[in-house]
Amino acid sequence: MVFKRIFAGRPSARAARPEVPEGQRIYAVGDIHGRLDLLNKVLEEIEADDEARAGAETTVVFLGDLVDRGPDSRGVIERLMALQADRPATRLLLGNHDEVFLKAASGDTKAMRFLTRIGGRETILSYGVSEEEYRSCDFEELARLFAARVPAEHVRFVSSFDDYVVVGDYLFVHAGIRPGLVVEEQSASDLRWIRRDFLEFRKSHSHMVVHGHSISEEAQLHKNRIGIDTGAFASGRLTALGLERESSWLLTAQGEPDPRWLNLTD
User: Fold this and answer.
1) CA nearest 58: which of 82, 18, 97, 23?
2) CA-CA distance, 221 to 149, in Å (whole number)?
3) Are 187 and 205 in contact (CB under 8 A)?
4) CATH architecture of the region 24-256
5) How confident is the model over 160-170, as a mean pLDDT?
6) Maximum CA pair distance of the chain?
7) What one-character DSSP code corresponds to residue 259?
8) For residue range 75-107, what is the model confidence (pLDDT) as tens digits?
């Protein structure tokens, strides 16, 4: 199955109804953020939904931000490592939190400082750093400790994630794209961090863009984009999007909300 293709020329208007190639079925999963409980539930939802439909070549695309804020980032990574080993067609995109995770896991003190500001405490603790160690270490010491605790295979796995995936008329990215640029001209920074310039753009892109990164209470279905980050780490609701031919549908894994994060929207 071809997931990336080279685009020639400038973006042009899409067909009114974006389409997945015949014989393929795609599920896209929003930002997990350490909620292993919801990941397991949404995988069960996807499996049941897939089995209830006619046979197809099925691929699950994870839109990034596996880590931070939720309680078990390590468990999420290990679950998806096992899933991809069992189902090699599974695709994963690198989110902005995953990018910071990789830098911090290399021992980068600046990245570690930033990681602790964006919900990285939970990620660090999930790798066996104790509360006492977390409180007593300065950022340089914490970066060294974290680098020692994160297994090399986890770093290799997250480092292998894609910047984007294309299937038919759909483009899957973590955050969004810079309007007016073809895909091969997009910067990795925009693909993982862009917000307002993408979200406020109302015209068509070359593809229907499916993304996470920007939290909304419900999935956002627009003429040029579909946003499925429903803030799982706080809301207890992880959303997946199903796509086949011209059809689309939503699946939801529901768990307990975490009141510590309910006022955080980014």
Assistant:
1) 23
2) 40
3) no
4) 4-Layer Sandwich (3.60)
5) 98
6) 57
7) G
8) 999 999 999 999 999 999 999 999 999 999 999
